[in-house]
Amino acid sequence: MKPSRCRGRAGVRFPGRAMRAMDSIIVPAPLQGASLLQALTKNRSGASAVEFALLLPIMLVLYVGAVEFSRGFDNWRKLEAAARAISDLSSQGDGAGAVRASTMNDIFASARLIMRPFDGSSAKIRVSALGVDFVRFGLTKPKVCSSYSTSNYSPRAVGMASDLTIPAGFQTQGTRYMLVEMSTTHTPILGSTLVNLMGGSYGSFDMRAVVPWPIRTDEEVVLPGGSKC
Predict the structure, then answer these.
(1) End-to-end CA distance of the chain
(2) Could you give the number of structural domains in the chain?
(3) Average pLDDT over residues 98-111
(4) What global pTM score does this model have?
(5) How confident is the model at residue 113 (pLDDT cuts 50, 70, 90)?
(6) Which range of residues forms the domain containing residue 151?
């Protein structure tokens, strides 16, 4: 029996078995509209890379912030330690008479060494000998008896310190104590841009330590160029 023949498109004649084989081929319809969107949402290949790319900037900011915070805190801790060392050394006086300028400069140099590994060469240091006189200056304001500072800072003027308040523990008539004011500039290594955004100047910000200290000698401490209260 001869196989049946049928006509395809354009009048081409195909055997019956060839037509059945062609009918069994499934040609997928092109993805359009919602079908394409659905396919993309179900495709999970590369999702980890995209998530990492989104999280990487946040992780870097947190890392840089942690590093710079620890460096800044360490710098401030050393600044505080240097100011306390100056307070302790200057409160011991220099025997009879006023403390010599060379002695104070040696104390300043020692304090700069405490600042290492941070640069303490440009640190501003001011030491003042203060007295409490309730009769003349009231209950809250101390008197500056003498003051000495580094060359990049100005000593306090002798007389009532209107911008200072007598700290707790020194509010007794006739008390004498030392006050050290020390400041430095901290410049972050990586986070200078963040410092500018937070109100810093040129990628850096100032740190300041103010330390009151009791006199550690029976004699009143007089700093170079000054006199007793």
Answers:
(1) 136
(2) 1
(3) 94
(4) 0.71
(5) very high
(6) 58-214
